Amino acid sequence: MHNQGPMNIDKLAEQKMGIAKLVGLGDEYVGDALKMVERNITPIIRIWRPEFSGKPLDAELERQFRSYLQAGLKWFEFYNEPNLYVEWPPGANFDPLNIGGVIAPLIENWLTWAEMVISYGAYPGFISLSEAGGGWENTTTWINQLLLYLFDNHHNRFVDILANGFWLATHPYVLNHFYQEMPGGGPLSARPPEMQNAFEPGWHFEYPYDPISQASDPGRSVWGGTPLAPLGDVHGLIGSGLAFMERLQEMFGVGAVPVIGTEGGLWPLPDRNSVKQLDIRYPGFTWESHAHATVAMFDWISHSAPPWMFGVALWKWDHYYDASGGGPMPAEGLLQNSNFIPKQVPPIPAVGDYVLDFDEGPAPPVRVVIEIPGPGPVHGQPEFHFMVLAPGIDKEWFFDIARVYWDRFKPTLMTVYDFINFLPKSSSLAVTVITTPDMVDLMNKQIAVRWPNIYMDLIVANTPNEVEDLLNSRVAAGRRFG
């Protein structure tokens, strides 16, 4: 459960809550957090600051975090949903492709904070993202940008954090992306809300990989690849966790790390006279059925979710239990009368081999075989041609000296590389890189090593005149590549 001010700890225990998210203005919840630990409830702590994205850990904020750390508490978060503009100071250049102004300060400040948390034997949560689709807020774009920056600039430092208590904070607002099969109706059948029963089988919370999603948009994944979801779809219980986990495996050799939804649940919450059905492919949920689906969601996490999915803190206390916020909801009584199902989590290395799986029961720890992301090999002429400028080479300067080449061959100018991941395996790509000699190794590591199927075309020069001469000689010879 996510707090709205102080929470009744006895009520949390009666409801069999295992996680309590505490957002405070400072260290006012140290006492409550310690009482929760005594009741076998795990507190997760974040200290709130308005419009805080990109700001550093100042002296007062550090003192407040240390109050919790010195008390022996373990689970912490720092930033909150920086992929939403409202979480940034006014006037911020809010764009995930703005590496220096957006991505770099987030990661640099988070690393400093995470290492402080680890120094106390506690666990730093990674930067939580809102589950958003499209535009500058798109979740998968932010996942890529944050992890690419870590890969390029702090690989070994980040691996040390991964191996020392790192966990992922997600915000799975599930919407109505779940259903329960009709008895005997098969995987594509869905009970209407009034027939849903938390204590009967047939529940699906694996969106976007459930049968209804795949039947309506074959191949839909957290990363996209379909016309209806080109940028991916993480709007489900495990979507963001799965996307993060796949990238962490590909880039840092992660086995698995804990994923906790530090706010979320079935959303938007219904009132007594409404049906919430944002996605018409799935049944909606009502005031009464919301309770059954919420209990079923927790049960599904325990027995069917991937072993790394630890739980969800419902948003939020006043909505569920306090009349001033619209509660109490029927979920209160049903949770109190349901059986507690402990989640059996096998030992999984944080950095090591493990297969991603969300079938019932954990998969054996075997070597993970991950398909190389991005395009396939080049046979003959590549289908796509990107031109990349190494760090320090100005885009405006490029058009001054490369206009003739660009007019002749029309390459796509790129300043970031993660778009290569979105090219289908059936396509092929050549990347022309303009670089100075001192940046050749870095560009090979960032592009050729990461996507070995592409054709890497290097233009290495010390001065603009050298670059211009090389490009013009290609145009004169009718030769796109060197």
The strand count comes to 13
User: Residue share in helices?
Assistant: 25-40%
Oligomer: single chain
Shape: globular
Strand order, largest beta sheet: 1-2-3-4
User: What gyration radius follows from the Cα positions, in whole Å?
Assistant: 25 Å
The biggest sheet, with number of strands, parallel, antiparallel or mixed sense and barrel status, is: 4 strands, parallel
Q: Report the span from N to C terminus.
A: 60 Å
CATH architecture level-2 label of the largest domain: Alpha-Beta Barrel
What does it look like?
The chain is an alpha/beta fold. The chain is 32% helix and 12% strand. The chain contains 14 helices and 13 strands. Helix 3 links the parallel strand 2 (42-47) and strand 3. Helix 5 (139-153) packs parallel to helix 8 (239-252). The radius of gyration is 25 Å and the shape is globular. It starts with 8 loop residues before the first helix and ends in a 5-residue tail after the last helix.
